[in-house]
Amino acid sequence: MNKLAALTAAALALSFAPAYADGDAAAGENVFKKCKACHMVGDGAKNRVGPQLNGIIDNEIASVEDFRYSKPFLALKEEGFVWDVENLSTYLENPKKMIKGTKMAFAGLKKEEDRADVIAYLATFE
């Protein structure tokens, strides 16, 4: 493939990038308030009912030390599942639909913008 064709393909791929790539971290901090009852991020973050979420993006599922994961999460870990942005967005939209048997009681974030924003916020805690 010549250089022009490669650049064109890259530009097209970016133009079809999902909206979550454009999330607003500041707005995501506000959306994350819905998650704080069970999850922490930032310096000194600890596991609660759910694991701390520092470094979650592009990390393997069920990888936070000293957290007891449910069987469905451990099964996905065996398969090499990674929390890329797309998987995280799908999960945040409807956790119980994506991972059957999850203990997470949260109903999900139905608005794509909210998911994009909270993912942008989580990305600040690598």
From TrEMBL:
GO terms for molecular function: electron transfer activity; heme binding; metal ion binding. PROSITE patterns: CYTC (PS51007). It is a single-pass membrane protein. The keyword Iron applies. Keywords: Cell membrane, Electron transport, Heme, Iron, Membrane, Metal-binding, Signal, Transmembrane, Transmembrane helix, Transport. It is found in: Cell membrane. Residues 1-21 form the signal peptide. Residues 23-126 form the Cytochrome c domain. This is C-type cytochrome. It comes from Oceanomicrobium pacificus.
